[in-house]
Write a structure and sequence with these properties.
Elements lengths: L10 H27 L4 H20 L15 H17 L10 H10 L9 H12 L6 H29 L5 H17 L1 H7 L6 H20 L6 H18 L6 H12 L7 H15 L4 H6 L19 H4 L2 H11 L16 H16 L8 H25 L1 H22 L25 H24 L11 H8 L8 H11 L6 H11 L6 E4 L6 H8 L8 E4 H4 L2 H9 L31 H6 L3 E2 L5 E5 L2 E5 L9 E2 H13 L5 E4 L4 H5 L6 E4 L2 E4 L12 E4 L3 E4 H10 L2 H8 L9 H19 L3 H17 L9 H5 L28 H4 L3
Parallel strand pairs: 1-2, 1-7, 8-11
Antiparallel strand pairs: 3-6, 4-5, 7-9, 8-9, 10-11
Amino acid sequence: MPVIERRGVTPRSKEIKIYLYLGAVVALAGGFADLVRGGITLSALLLSVAYCVLIPLGIWSGARRAPAESPADRPPYGAAAIVGLAVFALYVATMAPSTAMWDTSEYIAAAYTFGLPHPPGNPFFVIIGRVFSILPIAGTVAARINVLAAVCSAVAAGVWFLVAEHVLRGWLETKWLRFTGGALAATFGATAFTVWNQSVVNEKVYTVSLVGIAIVSWLLVRWSSDPSDGRADTRLVLAAYLCGLGYANHMAGMLPAVAIAVAIVVRRPLTLVRWRLIASCLGALVVGLTPFATQPIRAAHFPAMNEGEPTGCRTAIAVSCTLSKATYDAFTYNLDRRQYGKPSLADRQASLGDQVGMWWLYFRWQWLRDADSANPFAQSLLAAVFLVLGLLGGWVHYTRDRPSFWYFGTLMFTMTLLLIYYLNFKLGASQDPTSPLPHEVRDRDYFFLWSYSAWGVWAALGLMWVWEALASLGRDVAPGTVPAASRAWLLASPVAAIAIVPLVGNWSSASRSRHHATADMAADLLNSVEPYGVLITRGDNDTFPLWYAQEVEGIRRDVVVICTSLLGTDWYARQVIRRPIYDYDAANGPAVYRDTKWIKPTTPPLHMTFADADAVPDAYDIRQPVSFDAKDIHAIIDPRRLEYGALLRADALVLRMILDSWPARPIYFARSDVGYPRSLGLEKYILTQGLASKVFVPPAAGGALKDTVFVEGDGWLDIARSRALWNEFRGPRSIIAEGQWVDRPSANMAGLYIFAGAELAEVFRANHESAAANDVFSTVRRVAGAARLDNFVNGVESVFASPAPGDSGPAIPLKVDAGAPPKVQSSDPAARKRR
């Protein structure tokens, strides 16, 4: 092969670079100007074009022209694209048509409204999420943003194909074997449970981080192969830019930084003294971080989702309040995530052994997500196989392509052991359930998504080594139409069948194609509240889906949702005060509300100024029971029943809302935490209607209300209203149709229907309405079976088959034996610590 001299940057390439950078400046200026004006569509489009197209192309256009490569030496980008498309097709086939539990609804709503999700706000995701939300690529906003997750993970799979194929080049001469190894890497990484599960519903920002880490990895693998290549410096600058942009999406964007530093020190340490290159990298990094500048601007427009409120403006955007110390303080508080009170790394929340054990628990899930623990031995065996294959692949990588190993090996260390130590989690939600030690409120496997995805590369290399070893045993077979070596590989090819194991084993658990339950639950909960009511919630899963329903689907925007886990912050109380009052859409509301004229309120639930709200202390230290009186309510608040032994700011503001707005405005508590109103001494003043409990005045002793009964252990129940709402609920049908609930920590939301339905069925039975009782309880039983919550109906089932004395219908106990559903996992800073 003739030696071709490197050629420098041509005048034409300089001209292109200038045009690209000018275009980027214009797009950024236009995007930020539109954002200041209050626009959320043109701004998102312009900023996306600048950050995702013009700036990267501008950086790349400055690269020196590399020597011409022969077709055999060029990276197989076409094959990688085909692999990526195949993975994308898999994700689309199993993609969620709507939203899902946990942060999914929060982030879909934030992207759609160009709002601010929880700290640090993830501005880059919000920008590109807004763009995807308006693209005509799916029928619903949620599905369009789910496509974003699928696209990101599919591109990452194609990049892992390139990385594996690159390592195999120094080892295998046969192209089809290298391509097979690359395809194995992509398949392993793409069908690992957490990767797949996160790629078919945009729960958060992790798949966007994944594609950024993958692209940076490809740039550094190429750089490591030849640090003196004409494009080597450009690859470093582009990698620095992508790290900054990745950080603007999520802190994981910086995960490759340590690996980049190690690769430079090992492969070309003099790079560290090339100040112009270092300055270029730092400049690119800073430019990548500039999406954070959108936050104070957008926050000052007070979108519906404005978590953290990183602005000093209180009523309208202005230069004086935006460029102020108040904005700086609010922004840095938000950026540092101080709201969550992260403990120091020296203050271990669990032993390092237990924290590594959490990673191993989730690693076992990747290759066979045995959600019902039906095949624990097979799951553990497969995990051991993939662990050995990955470790073997790391050794193969080190011995066969050491230049790229220094980057990739360090990255794997960073995304496993170093990340485990840094995250400093408590025990996982599903880890050692009998342990008295503190547990995370949910399973945190998504934090290791990048580890499990990249593990596919090493698992594939390890499998290729095993395959080669088996093939070497058959090298002496008689040659036929296929060369002897290739024939031996083909004869040993059944070993590659392990690649389909995660695909088959994870299909039912990872697929979200039938999941409508979250959106339907949100609609059912909102519709349980009378028009213009206030709904008090406690955590993620009874709050975020409501935000999605209201802000994305426009369902029951007249209801004011108050999340007590956020009400303890100063910014959330201000948002409650300034929230607009929306008209009730009677045509799309429940039929039970249509015969009543509802009066639209003119004031917010809290009759307070911002200064008044800001002055409410974090907690009131009450040492003995105190009384709370609001018109006809006379409650006693016992500090022994309060969650933290003190009346928190959120509790005080809830009580203030009752003082200010009730009974003119209906006030409800979501039944996801039935103990909360009791802790405030309100248990006698609660009337259950559907999935919510309304503050009301009970009848006097010996009195009665039509269709209202007292249920032992749960309080008052509005029979007629609950019956009407139950008949319109969509959630039970959705849960039954999906037939599973893989995520156990959020299964309590399905439990709401079980508890409400069992209670309603008992009342029907007590009123001798056997047919209605049977119908409702049949649905309850099917929901419990689909959600694997059969224990909720144990005790009820046994009595249901026996007729009660004097009644030909089945008996139902007068007291619900199903038990209240567990609490919704709290998003309170003291409980959650970190996201």
